[in-house]
Amino acid sequence: MYVVIGATGNTGRAVAETLLASGKKVRVVGRSAERLKPLIKKGAEPFVGSVDDPSAMARAFQGAKAVYAMVPPNYTAENPRADQNKIGDALARALAEARVTHVVNLSSLGAHLSNGAGPISGLHDVEKRLSTLSGAHIVHLRPAYFMENFLLNIPLIKGQGINGSPMRPDIPMPMIATQDIATEAVRLLLDLGFSGKTTRELMGPRDLSMVEATRIIGSAIGKPDLPYVQFPYEQAEKAMAGMGLSAGMAQAMTEMYRGFNEGAIRSAEGRSTRNTTATSLEEFAKRFAAAYAA
């Protein structure tokens, strides 16, 4: 039995589907039975519960050979870091109670930073908490900026004819497709050859600036001259609040963008063949174009 946290999200869904396709028993955890239905139809066993409830998670983890763990983002949390720590503690207590021996935990590039990285610093705390577990072997995956983040800008592109964010236009940064994160997670979960507490960065195929990335996704939708605009932090915070983010989360996201812009959030390993993944932004742009046209 494999247990997958966040099974309705980008990486969790792909992990669950790949494990099911490999003929494995999979228990998928989510807050909503309705949203788990597509995975149930593929043979998954559902578990409806909250990840911040240690007793519920201990039941979810019973009999698990391995767990794919993560802290689902809560964009309405007034204190995002405290919320992340509450979930991390609940998961750690549940993993200990259920005596799970192998865990692949989704973290983030930059999670070596204890401060100054917004939500990523919260994931630093979660890594530290999970790594206190005795008898459990844990790999903390630290992927780069998700290519899927560009999908959130479709309304902006359609409405204003621009792509934009608080990120500087000119700094190259690693970008990864979430399917590649799932591929590595599944490889680790099926092999179970890892031991101790380790971290592994996942860097995508190459570094790209926001200007370069915008040109690639723009070309895919017939807008090769799509401009990229860097939004001031204050303006971005107001926009995030308008989208329903709490003030605390908007401030944390601004801290994260500032960390990227100032070079604080960066790879701790450096790029290598080991942490370079396959899917290019050009390949992802085909999916972006399909979503844009929908």
Number of strands: 12
Helical proportion?
40-55%
In round numbers, the mean pLDDT is 97
Helical run tally: 11
Low-pLDDT stretches: none
What class would the helix/strand composition place it in? alpha/beta
Strand fraction: 15-25%
| Lateral strand order in the biggest sheet | 3-2-1-4-5-6-10
Protein architecture, described:
44% of the residues lie in helices and 16% in strands. It contains 11 helices and 12 strands. By secondary structure, it is α/β, with parallel strands linked by helices. It has helices at 10-21, 33-41, 54-61, 80-98, 119-130, 154-160, 178-191, 210-220, 233-242, 247-261, 281-293; strands at 2-4, 26-30, 45-48, 66-69, 102-106, 137-143, 145-146, 163-165, 173-176, 197-202, 207-208, 228-230. The model has no long low-confidence stretch (mean pLDDT 97). 44% of the residues are buried.
